[in-house]
Structures are given as C-alpha cells and as structure tokens.
Amino acid sequence: MRVGAAAASATIALGKEQSAAEPWPQSALMSPAALAKKLNSEGARPAVLCVAFPVLYRQRHIIHAEFAGPGRSAEGIESLKKAAANLQKNEEIVIYCGCCPMVDCPNVRPAYSTLTKLGFTNVKVLDIPTNFHTDWVAKGYPVEEQLGVPIGPAARPK
Q1: Is residue 15 part of a domain?
Q2: Which residue spans within 61-152 are E strands per DSSP?
C-alpha cells in the first residue's frame, strides 16, 4: 500500500507522526545501520523477530533473529505470538521481513499490529525500502544461515 501525496500532506497538516497507511509511528522505524550497530555492540541486544516467509529465513537472516512466521497468515500470527511469549512487554523488539519493498510487504503490518495489541510497548520495524538482500546482506551487515552459523565477518557500522 503506497501513501499518496494527498495522504502524506493530510498527515503533515494534522501534525501526526504516524502516516495514514502505516500502523506504526515514524519513531518506530529503525534503519538497518542502527540495528547492525546494536547487534555488534557490547550492550544489550534487541529481540529480532523475522516475520518473513520461511524460505527467506532459511536462506539467510539477521544474526540472532528468531523466525516468527509470516505475518500475513493466521498460522504466522500464531507463531509470532509464541515467539513473543517469553519477551518482556517493554523489551525492545525489532521485526523485519524484507521479501519486497516495505511499502508492499504483506507481513510487517499485521505483525506490528499484533505485537502492539498484545501490549508490547517497544516494537520497532526494520526499515527495508528495497529488500533484505539489498538493504542488509549486500551492505555486509551480520547474517547467519538457518543453523545459526555466521556467514563471513560482521561489518562494524560507523
């Protein structure tokens, strides 16, 4: 779903941080560089939940990410609920898909809405404008295969 100029103007005119097309406020978007930096730091890492299709997760996924099921299906939402069951309500959670440009993604919106309806208060959405390969893998950010074996050295963002 794309936000047209009229909708964007209406959002700005209303002074809202959240666009009419997205269930999250702008402040809930996290850049790939910011997440990679957190994952490479010595501090606490956010819980990273992959809400993509299983084949994408199996190929490569963000290091330490847990597969939580595709957000577009009822089964995927049930998997997401199970993946989130042991997380604290105020814990930082980053969800991502990357199957396609985020404006067209069928998975992140239902996943975000589900987590917030469950009472999670610190949910972030990884901003993937193109796709997971272009916006994460090709930039050298840390990935692993299904078995949890890191692929190559993790790039340390500046």
Answers
A1: no
A2: 61-62, 66-67, 93-96, 123-126, 143-144
* Number of folded domains that form the chain: 1
In this predicted model, what pLDDT tens digit does every residue of 93-148 receive, in sequence order? 999 999 999 999 999 999 999 999 999 999 999 999 999 999 999 999 999 976 55
CA distance linking residue 142 with residue 62, whole number of Å: 6
Range of the domain at 129: 22-144
Examine residue 149 and state whether it is found in any structural domain, yes or no: no
Q: How far apart are the first and last CA of the chain?
A: 33
- Where residue 121 sits, what CATH number does that domain have? 3.40.250.10
Give 94's strand partners. Answer: 48, 124
Rounded Cα distance, 158 and 156, in Å:
6
Tell me which residue has tokens 């050298």.
140
